[in-house]
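User:
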Amino acid sequence: MATTSTLRIAWRNLGRNRKRTFLAVSAIALGQLTFLVISALMNGYGDQYFNSITGPLIGHIQIHAPEWREDRSIDLAIDDLGARLEQLRADPGVAHAAPRMYAPVLAALTDEGFMGMVIGIDAQVESHDSGLLAGQDLSGQMGERRVLVGSTFARKYDITPGMELAVIGQDVDGSIANDLFTVTNIVSSQVDIVNSLGIVMSIEDAQEFLLMPDQAHEVLIHVKEPEMVLEVVAGLSTLPVVDGLEILPWREIVPQLVSMIDMIGAFTLIILVIVFIAAAAGITNTMLMSTYERIHEFGMLLSLGCQPNRLGRMVAVEAMLLGLVGVTVGSALAIGVVLLTMDSGLDYAALGGNDASYQVAFQGMQITSRVTPKLLPTDIGIGIVAVLFTSFISALWPMLHIVRLEPMEAMRS
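Assistant: Predicted structure:
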């Protein structure tokens, strides 16, 4: 371990060539700043992507009748819905359990028909932050043949609140199902199918329309702690309430999207490696130049009885101090950048030259161009450890050179 005198001498030595030290510190700080800002953006994007996947469309857990996900047949339904929901919601890990029904239909305002999708929901349950109607408790505008219509769907067919919509489909028995519904509101959702095709009605109206009392096609579950999804699935799977049903965590429902989340971590690691390879080159260059400039001085110290190991430790401490100063400056700058953008976020559209943010539909989800950076303490810690490790490795070559010096030969240099 470095003594106080070694630390003091190492710190003083950094000031011998201030310009070179400044450049090395700046390179390390820039590397740390780059790594942390990219990590914050990747964390923010990862959270946004995760919330989009496990939000209103997929949820954390889904329960269906076997084969419903493959066939989407109207008769593949969950029976005894009320009793099942009561038991599911009693589980301490479950935050929300939302029943849903789906049925393709033909809708019309006059004589001309157009395709739509009946989506039966419990509006009050779906008003939570990750629900189909996030932040909108519209239960008072639904039921008794009153429906909501998706924003894109309404715009395409000039549907406005107060209009009467004729809906024709097929009920569970294969007979023609038809009824008149009053449009009470136009809604926007994070789920593309709601916006583009949605005729959103209460679960009770959907059950009556399709002749499916106390039934639903799926139950979407959001858990209280997302990292505990597998534990909640394991607990629910032991309950009689899911006997004969398919219960799946979100990772098994959309494995192709899971791989994209995993790629975010791999990308951040690649950036870390690239940044600190460059930092290692800068520190190594600085320490080598500093070492060769002081060969004569080292020779004198060795001839006076100074141990080579102490000189080697001094060079190592210099490199570590250089890295520590650089990583501290870089971390402070990164924290400042994240704090400045935390409220407004960063808009990829603006960075690409567009004037306005945008949302795109992907796999049925709505993904926005605006990302809120999220800097984790672990990111800062990883950066600090990586820089200190890089500094130590970079000092090995100069250290080996010093411990092999012959005093008289060094003094003649």
